[in-house]
Design a protein that fits this description.
Chain B: Keywords: ATP-binding, Cell membrane, Membrane, Nucleotide-binding, Transport. Chain B: It is found in: Cell membrane. Chain B: It is a peripheral membrane protein. The complex is a heterodimer of chains A (294) and B (331). In chain A, 69% of the residues lie in helices and 0% in strands. Chain A is mainly α and 294 residues long. Chain A has one domain (27-49, 69-288): MetI-like (MetI-like fold, Orthogonal Bundle), CATH 1.10.3720.10. Chain B is an alpha/beta fold and 331 residues long. Chain B folds into two domains: 5-219, P-loop containing nucleotide triphosphate hydrolases (Rossmann fold); 225-313, no CATH class. In chain B, strands 6-7-8-3-9-10-12-11 form an eight-stranded mixed β-sheet, with helices on both faces. In chain B, strands 2-1-4-5 form a four-stranded antiparallel β-sheet, covered by helices on one side. In chain B, β4 and β5 (71-72) form a beta hairpin. Classes of the chains: A mainly alpha (294), B alpha/beta (331).
Chain lengths: 294, 331
């Protein structure tokens, strides 16, 4: 009682305790490096529309398996096709497949995850079990089935990779959303009348965005690798359109003669995957006001 | 009671998986009155608050009647209740650290309720939000409105929570331990501010706390809750000065207000609050009560002696100036 009665009448005492607001750093190194690598891949893909040193599909029997240097900067493959030109054009497929596959996965998985998180048992259980079934189904098998039905193409590859990633986003969204739904501020939002879809989209989704962004960057990296694997197996983009995955596949037959053939597409895949991972990490930090400036 | 009735709660029962956590609680808060609800943790205080708000978690159900403006809130659909929440009945939460959306600027959070219930457009709601932040005495309200919760101190955040609760001039404000998480100096200001605003708005206040001085400082009436039942009800000063229920007396003896034996030590109530479902039958307090006997095996009624409004649910109430623990002989 005494503490209440004797408290200083200064209404701003707690204001002082807030301390100065830290100056915000506008960028972080992870984001810059990640965005730089991703930008490089994007730029490569864009440049390929305007210019390539050679026609990437032109076969030249007199110039096969050249080492890097000379007229062909990174050499040629067993058909005499220019490696640089193939890498440039291959970036298009890689980016396209990655972006579309992740978009499919997120566009289907996130709403399903939110739906499952709302807690209605008759809604949540079927959704989660359906996701389990998809999760248990190998992506490669799905791609083979689609390829058998519709013919192998970039599109079937993208769909297969996208669908295979739906459960990843669904589960992550559900787990994250359930945690956020338990929090006081959601209860508070409900206490002033927020509900339903708006509550999910404006309160829950932003608070799991960091999770989803990181997952998107990881999934993108996986999609690039999966696309490479599908091309390698012959269930992705059909020849002669160059993809990094198939370049890698074709390189293995000539590994002893010209090992550099495998290095270039491998390096391209590794750098773009690294780029997307770093960018996801950086974006997470940059988008969270709590982590800014740390 | 007063001509204009505020909130009327009749026989509110809250069940947690078929175990009664709140056992038929009834009380009435007149319009503009300030009611305190105290009790130890686990007494059903917060469940009562959430039941009033219609925000009970899954698996927890409420029955009885909660009347506000002639409507039973427990009968309303979820959608109807959403129109009531924030507009007619609002809540201040215990933890200002977690009660705000970390990713939304505080001004927008205050504006949310206005846009939702008053149909204001973005600009009007934002302008009103700044006014509200000024009313809760936040410095530089227009700048504060653009800050995120993590940039504010605990006291400042609790002011924002209060601004949100008061945004639509609710008839009833439920404050669940609004000062527990704050520093003592900040607590006093927060209470004074809440007191002022509730008076200005003419809103009814239900202040839930386990802190007796807090209740004493701003409430008019007091409900003492134990084991999901109301054990004592009356005017704050009267209940404080001469508690009739041994539990209230025990609570009072364990605060700084009283130093029973002159040693300067705080006294304690023996034992601890039983877990849900393991309260004794009959009087819920009898396993910890110094005055308990065989009669206490039956449930005592909440009654007042003739000529008094101070009701207590006890078979052996303490009559004035009688030391605790010696009631049996006279009862």
């Amino acid at each position: 009682m005494t503490s209440v009665a004797d408290a200083p009448p200064d209404a701003t005492a707690d204001v002082v305790a807030a301390g100065p607001v830290k100056p915000r750093r506008r960028w972080n190194l992870t984001l810059v490096i990640g965005a730089g690598l991703v930008g490089l891949v994007v730029l490569t893909a864009l440049v390929s529309f305007l210019w390539t040193p050679y026609d990437p599909t032109r076969v030249d029997p007199s110039q096969t398996l050249l080492s890097p240097g000379g007229d062909h900067w990174l050499g040629t493959d067993h058909f005499g096709r220019d490696i640089v030109s193939q890498l440039l054009v291959g970036a298009r497929t890689t980016l396209f497949v990655g972006v579309v596959a992740v978009a499919i996965a997120a566009a289907v998985g996130v709403p399903l995850g939110l739906l499952a998180a709302t807690g209605h048992r008759w809604l949540s259980e079927p959704v989660m079990r359906a996701l389990d079934i998809v999760f248990a189904f190998p992506a490669i098998l799905l791609a083979i089935i689609l390829a058998a039905g519709f013919g192998a193409s970039t599109l079937t590859g993208m769909i297969a990779i996208g669908v295979a990633n739906v459960p990843v986003f669904g589960r992550l969204t559900r787990a994250g959303a359930m945690q956020v739904l338990q929090s006081d501020f959601v209860l508070a939002a409900r206490s002033y009348g927020r509900r339903g879809v708006v509550l999910m989209v404006r309160y829950v989704l932003p608070n799991i965005a960091a999770l989803l962004i990181v997952q998107a960057s990881v999934s993108f990296a996986h999609a690039v690798l999966a696309e490479a694997a599908l091309s390698y197996l012959g269930y992705g983009t059909p020849p002669p359109t160059p993809t990094w995955g198939r370049m890698l596949q074709e390189a293995q037959n000539y590994f002893v003669v010209q090992p550099m053939l495998a290095v270039w597409p491998g390096l391209a895949i590794a750098l773009s995957v690294l780029g997307f991972n770093l960018m996801g990490d950086g974006l997470r930090d940059a988008l969270d006001p709590r982590l800014r400036g740390r | 009671m007063t001509g204009v009735s505020g909130l009327v709660v009749e026989d509110l029962v809250v069940k947690v998986h078929d175990i009664q956590a709140v056992k038929g609680v009834s009380f009435e808060i007149g319009r503009g009155r300030r009611m305190g609800l105290i009790g130890e943790s686990g007494c059903g205080k917060s469940l009562t608050a959430l039941a009033l708000m219609g925000l009970l978690p899954h698996g927890v159900t409420a029955s009885g009647r909660v009347l506000l403006n002639g409507r039973n809130l427990l009968d309303l659909s979820d959608k109807q209740m959403c129109a009531v929440r924030g507009n007619d009945i609002a809540m201040v939460f215990q933890e200002p650290m977690t009660a705000l959306n970390p990713l939304m600027r505080v001004g927008n959070q205050v504006a949310e309720s206005l846009r939702l219930h008053k149909g204001m457009n973005r600009a009007a709601a934002s302008a009103r939000a700044v006014e509200l932040l000024e009313r809760v005495q936040l410095p530089e309200p227009d700048r504060t409105a653009r800050k995120y919760p993590h940039q504010l101190s605990g006291g400042q955040r609790q002011r924002v929570v209060l601004a949100i609760a008061l945004a639509c001039d609710p008839a009833v404000l439920v404050a669940d331990e609004p000062t527990t998480a704050l520093d003592v100096t900040v607590q006093a200001e927060m209470l004074r501010l809440m007191d002022t605003l509730v008076r200005e708005e003419g809103a009814s206040l239900l202040l839930i706390t386990h802190d007796l001085p807090v209740v004493a400082s701003i409430c008019e009436e007091l409900l003492v809750m134990y084991g999901g039942s109301i054990v004592e009800h009356g005017d704050v000063a009267t209940v404080f000065d001469s508690p009739r229920h041994p539990y209230t007396a025990g609570l009072r003896a364990s605060t700084v207000l009283e130093s029973t034996d002159g040693s300067g030590r705080l006294s304690t109530i023996p034992g601890r609050v039983p877990s849900l479902g393991s309260f004794p039958t009959g009087c819920v307090y009898r396993n910890r009560c110094p005055r308990a006997d065989d009669v206490c095996g039956t449930v005592p009624l909440l009654t007042a002696p003739p000529g008094s409004t101070q009701r207590a649910a006890c078979h052996h109430p303490i009559e004035s100036d009688q030391p605790l623990g010696s009631g049996k002989a006279s009862a």
